[in-house]
Design the sequence.
């Protein structure tokens, strides 16, 4: 029986740390080390491990993930697993989903507990990721599933997964949709297929961005009685402080403090500005509330509606749209697909 060929690409993160002389955890383990820690992998797949980088995911950049996506596009493999840190996993997985168009499983996994701790979860998560990549149902539906995240024996769609706790083992979830599958014993139990229309439309609208330059996007969270001084600084600077777009983590169904509404309107006149729910996801309102800081007024003023996207994912999508050179109207159409 021929085993599936699985490529493991290691980026770093907690899963790849080891203690230094002081006991502090430092980057150091490579892809071969991660695979060697799980000997049973050799019975499941033909593993080819490659260390791409050794950095925490808090220090990854858009350009690195674009290069990783280009690498994945050329691999001769039956499945690809990316290991990285958890700090930005929800963002990198979403960006890979925007950039990678393969009919093989592409999975991102990581660890919440470092290898020096009792019950470190890295080996188990890597084993689960390989099981998922080799599973017949997953391989048959790989195109429909898109990029997946596998953590603590659950499989999540890249567009929906969120890190919901900074330290616990069960830090990852898809609050809006739930998991796509679960691992029980040595089985992958299918639960759902994701709705992919929005991602399909987004990828079609974005096109090829392989040679494009980074386009910095500011992420501003709006809270109680926010005066908008940062917005004012961006609006008042002749180069908008170097930003090419802005995502606002807005209140409720798409609201901003009334005192900052005029500044938000000015911001949208200067830069593509996306409104996304600071609650973390879920389609926003479009035509319920009136007043200068409501969704009706903001949409009329040219703010782009982020739909169900978490502000972190909205920022990733806006940066990708700007790399592609899309104008404000086309960007609005891309986001509109997300509800």
Sequence:
């Amino acid at each position: 029986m021929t085993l599936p060929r699985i490529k493991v690409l290691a980026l770093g993160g907690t899963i790849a740390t080891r203690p230094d002389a002081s006991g502090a955890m430092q980057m150091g383990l490579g892809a071969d080390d991660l695979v060697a820690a799980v000997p049973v992998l050799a019975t499941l797949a033909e593993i080819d491990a490659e260390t791409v980088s050794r950095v925490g995911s808090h220090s990854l950049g858009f350009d690195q993930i674009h290069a990783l996506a280009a690498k994945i596009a050329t691999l001769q493999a039956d499945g690809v697993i990316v290991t990285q840190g958890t700090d930005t996993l929800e963002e990198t997985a979403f960006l890979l989903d925007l950039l990678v168009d393969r009919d093989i499983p592409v999975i991102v996994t990581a660890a919440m507990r470092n290898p020096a701790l009792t019950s470190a979860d890295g080996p188990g998560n890597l084993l689960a990721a390989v099981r998922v990549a080799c599973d017949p149902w997953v391989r048959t539906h790989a195109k429909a599933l898109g990029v997946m995240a596998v953590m603590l024996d659950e499989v999540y769609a890249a567009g929906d997964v969120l890190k919901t706790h900074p330290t616990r083992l069960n830090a990852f979830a898809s609050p809006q949709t739930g998991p796509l599958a679960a691992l029980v014993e040595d089985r992958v139990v299918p639960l759902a297929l994701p709705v992919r229309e929005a991602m399909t439309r987004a990828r079609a609208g974005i096109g090829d961005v392989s040679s494009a330059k980074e386009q910095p996007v500011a992420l501003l969270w709006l809270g109680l009685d926010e005066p908008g001084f940062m917005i004012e600084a961006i609006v008042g600077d002749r180069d908008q402080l170097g930003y090419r777009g802005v995502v606002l983590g807005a209140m409720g169904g798409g609201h901003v403090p009334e005192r900052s509404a005029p500044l938000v309107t000015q911001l949208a006149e200067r830069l593509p500005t996306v409104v996304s729910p600071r609650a973390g996801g879920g389609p926003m309102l479009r035509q319920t509330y009136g007043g200068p800081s409501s969704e009706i007024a903001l949409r009329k003023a040219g703010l782009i509606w982020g739909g169900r996207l978490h502000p972190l994912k909205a920022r990733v999508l806006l940066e990708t749209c700007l790399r592609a050179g899309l104008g404000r109207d086309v960007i609005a159409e891309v986001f509109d697909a997300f509800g």
